[in-house]
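This part of the workshop introduces the protein records we will be handling. A record pairs a protein's sequence with a compact description of its fold. Comparing a sequence with its tokens is the quickest way to learn the format. The record below serves as our worked example for the rest of this section:
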Amino acid sequence: MPQNILVIGAGIGGLTAAALLAKNGDRVTLLEASSELGGCAGKFKRHKFLFPVGATLGMGLESGGIHERVFRFLGKPLPLEPLETVMEMIHPDHSFVFLKNREHHVHNIVSQFPGYESNIRAFYQEIYSTASIVRTMMDPLPALPPATAKEWVALAGAIRPAHARLLPHFNKTLGDCLNRHGLDQLTAFRHMLDGLLIDSMQTASEDVSYLLAAVALDIYHEGAYYVPGGLYRFAEIMGESIKENGGVLKKRRTVMKLARSKKAWIATDHRGNSYEADAVIVNAPIHLLPGMLSQELADQLKKPLLEGARSETWTTLTLYIAVDSSRLTHPLPPFRQISTGDGMAEGAHFFMSASLPGDLLRAPAGFQTVTVSTHSKADLWDTHEKYDVARETLSTRMLQAIEQQIPGFRESIVHLEKGAPKAWERFTGRPNGFVGGFPQTLDSALFNSISHRSGIPGLYVCGDHIFPGGGTIGAAASGIHAARSIASKRLI
């Protein structure tokens, strides 16, 4: 029998859950506080330029990938060719090119470290082997931590004999693996890995969960994609599907209150409108959830969820730039990391993505739009004086580093604006501009993750703070888990 489902927040997690349930035949209403879909994978326009808000590199579109499975289930495939060259990685002493082909990639890396070839090859052989085993869990996609007998059964059913090989590494970090292969003191190599991990796992090799790091370092080889226009296309596809399957999608609706009657959930938005539902999925920032509930209900939330709602994550400074490509020697590559060697945050490491020439969804002919983002600690922005200093300091640091790599870059800029934490808070509703989810350390990953089950019957959560973690793949997976729990079927 169809259920009335309310989804709060049209980020990738909420859209995934809503689209799956609407396709399943449930009556879905999706409320989004902003005027755009996609959350941190959304977009905005300035004059003739379109900018991705945050996420830019497409993942999970390969056959069997999370997004590919969702779009296939919805009957809306998104056929794209994977990038053979995924990104450039610019470091003080070495420059690397991340290649899709694993063998070519490793050959490229070892060529820069004479004397360490056997160590590095053994390291990557282990990483790729581990990732291939972990990836066998991607098809059944069990939920962690298991919260019901059915979830425990699903997890047990997903386990294969090969998974026994993962047990010795379950409570290890990638740093342990580097030590084992004699690479812990190879600073430039480790710094390169840290640059990849901070962008995907929100932490570096010393603390990141080994099992998740193996997948993170390998997943680019499975398929990384440039999506014309940007990743907001994911949001548009799912939004279209929701409406085609009878769902209701309302923008500019901020849910202020969630209450539970004997028979249903009642949500009230900022305009005083009420919505009744059998079940609710919250894709709003988890920091906001306790405030939506009465104290009695908030006290029923699971302890990890409550603790997460009180915790800080990274914030960011993002530069949104449009350039006149004719003023550059060469068009900008689509994806590039730049590190100055002074750490993984505060403008010393940043990710730079640019629209491809000819992507007229992003910029007119002869122009490219560029998104540049760096991690930053929230306490550097907690007063007005510190905020202004951090914004200017980090902006200058990143622009100088880009100019060193691309002479004439500053002269090519025709538009520039800065997305500091308060801008992120206004656009996405995330308190203090917290982005990216929790660092995937041993204390917060896998069985220590936050479950999609809130602890209150009929109330679910999804998004980058919920298992399996950040990025569009992680957010989508959490939405799948919420949808499965409501539908009581696998769906995909």
About this structure: The mean pLDDT is 96. Residues 384-405 form the longest helix (22 residues). The chain has three domains: 4-41+228-311+437-487, 98-222, 315-433. The radius of gyration is 22 Å.
